[in-house]
Amino acid sequence: MDNQKKAQENSKDGAAPAQAEEKKLIDFAAIDSKWQQEWQKAKLFESNPDEKRQKFFITFPYPYVNGAPHVGHTYSFLRTDSEARYKRLKGYNVLFPQGFHATGEPIFGTLERLQKGDQNQIDTFKKYGLSDEQIKEFAKGPEFVARFWMGKWTEHLKQAGASIDWRRSFITTQMTPTYSRFIEWQFNLLRRKGYVVQGTHPVVWCAHDQSPTGDHDRYKGEGESTQEFYVIKFTLEDGRIIAPATLRPETIFGVTCMFLNPDTTYYNVRVGADTWILSADAAKKLADQKKDVKIPKEGFSPRELFGKKCKNPVTGTEVVILPATFVKTDHATGIVMSVPAHAPADWATEEELKKNPKMVTEYGVDAAVLSSLKPVAVIKVPGYSEFPAKDACDKFKIKSQNDEKKLEDAKHEIYKKEHYEGTMLAISGKYENMKVDDCKDQLVKDLRAEKKLDSFWETTGEVVCRCMNKCHVKILENQWFLKFSDLEWKADVKECIGQMRMIPEDVRQQFLNCVDWLENKACARRSGMGTPLPWDPEWKVETLSDSVIYMAYYTIARAINEKKVEAKQLPDAVFDYIFLGIGDHKELKSITTLSDKTIAEMRKEFLYYYPLDLRNSGVDLVQNHLTFMLFHHTAIFGKEHWPKGISVNGYVNVEGEKMSKSKGNIIPMSDLVQKYGADLVRINIVASSEGLSDADWKTDAIKSYRRAIEVLFETAELLETLPNTPKPIYGRPEELLESKVNSAIKIADLAYDNMRFRQAGFELVQNGIGAIKSYRQHKESTGEKYNQKVLRACLEKIVIAVAPLLPHVTEEVWHKMGNQTFASTEKYPAVEEDKIKPELAAQEDYVQAVEEDIRKIADVAKISPKKITLIVSAKWKQEELEKIASDVSAGKPFAFDVKMKELMAKDDLKKVAPQVSGFLMSVGKKVHSFSGYKKSDESAILESKSAGIGKKFGEATVKVVSEEDAAKDAALSKKAEKAMPGKPAILLE
Ligand SMILES: [Zn+2]
User: Fold this and answer.
1) Interval between CA 519 and ligand 1 midpoint (Å)
2) pTM of the complete model beyond 0.85
3) How far, in Å, CA of 364 to CA of 746, rounded?
4) How far is ligand 1, taken at its centre, from the CA of residue 207, in Å?
5) Distance of CA 711 from the midpoint of ligand 1 (Å)
6) What is the pLDDT of residues 248-272, one digit of tens each?
7) What's the CA-to-centroid distance between 208 and ligand 1, angstroms?
């Protein structure tokens, strides 16, 4: 782009056009590519073992290569890169590699959607800049697609200034045979150690792929798992079984009727020797959960059942079968047993039917049966009436069985209350007085023994596979599972979590919870791409299982890639030696053609870089990938090689809105970089948030960052023109500049270390660069001489400290200042503690605030003042405010009446009662804004600055008086009462 065009571009969304014309414009694109080339030439980010230096190994989870990076990835990735850059400044030998993930269903899913002509998928690819021809080329197959997107990812990360050691890149699956070999070693080892077991378990299943569907093979429903419902077998007169499914079998004693959906078809399904009545979906699901399930071709309308009765197998009571449209036929068995006393939906439905008998009579049911619907209380709950469901319906104002959202909330509340606090009533016979939870366990055991109860498995929420098929639960027999339920294994993982650094600290508990609830997990699938299980090659290691220890592979990937090591040269024994130190590398000669020098080199590199120091990713990976990583590491590696740190971040919004396809706000990262240059994109997203809060891409925020970058360039240019005098001026402005810059780099240092980039950005840009700007403004407005030495030292400090957030422009400014080294690998500036003077900065802020107030008043009154009178608040106000502020910060609330009474007890204040009352009212309005208030000599500060203030307002004369003195002057006394501590009253003439 030439400069002319760039100027227009800049003025559109950045500096005002008038300014833009005067300024020399920064050519971000040229600066980006210049330094990216220089870094590459200097191999700046290639890391090799160096025993003299401490290492820091940091990673970002390898992305799926079924698309290019967008603004969401930009946040997590650039946080990782910023931290890597910070650690380099702190002197570490930083290893930051990047691989790519092709395993599993994502790429196949993408291809399948393309083949079906899915417009959404086509639009997404077009958004990433692909032509119709390029999309057509994807017909070449999954490997082509994977490599294509791997190329794009690499290109786009480089354009964003990623500081990656690219020599260590690879892509998963058999596209990298040595990596596949590594995964075989991992699984052989896990199996040998008893962590991979064969078993029969419920799994979330895709019938289309005939495969378990792990979290990352899902289009929808990440984090959903399997859940057991209980089927209680009610019998019809003809022996058929009505099979309601419930999570609350203990409410069996309060069933009043049975609900079936009138608008669907039910089936007489043979289950062993029984015949169960089930919805079509339920029948198909059950066939995947039980042996010997036969589904007839023809179903029937439930209308023939309405009005008939079925027998409760526990109480022997006969209950009527009724129509209810709220019954979901694609959830559980499609039949609901009504317990109006304890289920809000059932209460609401029965009430509705009683009020509108037509709802049953239109299905040929005699309205008289409705009078038999009488709630039966089963559970007693403290704080509720006999029928808790009625209470909940009243509370949530539920009118109909179709008030879905309110019913959900009511259900959750009642369920929780009854589960934790409820006890069984006499109607439950031998279960009377039992806690609900205990009763449930015992009852299930008893009824199962009597063959009155069975199980039905359902997903906890909707799960859709990447192939767009809806998933259900299948009981998978003799399949390979990771034994995550193993208590000793869990204990190891908890030990590991206990030793780790977690950023932010809040996520530690999330990890511990996740370890607790994890059950055995299927580790292989049938479809998609991946490494076959070495001992059962019909199955492929699934995507969340072949992506958990590859950080170790990075340490040897350089040697493998450079020496073109082949998979066959890496039998298990070689990996055992490199990663576990088992055996002697000289003895490996008999089983591999790999030289013992290469093997020793790989071992050395692994020992140098491992363990992993920090892995940064989005918080959505805590519940799966990140926890699995810890499980696998503790199973495979020695304790000294367990991961040392994890940092997670929130999600990404765009202009305050969640990203979604329908909103069209998923912006490709390369679009942003092309439009704004890498650095503005980096700082604008990385510094927009921290902790677990969501980040926000706000285009508007870029302006202020661009202005800050301009200040860096302008100051570097200014320095070229300033003489380096032997005895430069050193006064208050210099003192203040050094104080602010040192304070900013000090706070930013700690913030960087804790991945708090919002704070680091704020300190360095607002306070650090802001101080340089104010210093120059002061010198320009007063005509004072610059201190070249101080300004140069401060600019250098800020440039290096802000380099992790603005790597390209800082490199440019650094060289503009005559430096020959790379800013990217300089040392983080040392903080000169003795130069940090908080009171100085506070005074400066105070004077600035006063100046702003003067300006506001002058603007409103539309005058240019000749005389400015500043009235500093009375001593008693300052003293009382200091007391109030200290009380409030000690947790004592501010109460006007109490304080007024207290002050009126003082003789001197009694005389000025109206002023005291006015003062307390002003304080009360925003008492917390005064937190930490300490009185200061405002008069002295203002006196010392009065000349400067006057200069800023057209050489006006400035007079400072105390409120006490002003009170004696009739012209000032009224105004004087308004003076508040820290906020003088102002009179302009
Ligand atoms: Zn599928």
Assistant:
1) 22
2) no
3) 80
4) 7
5) 54
6) 999 999 999 999 999 999 999 999 9
7) 5
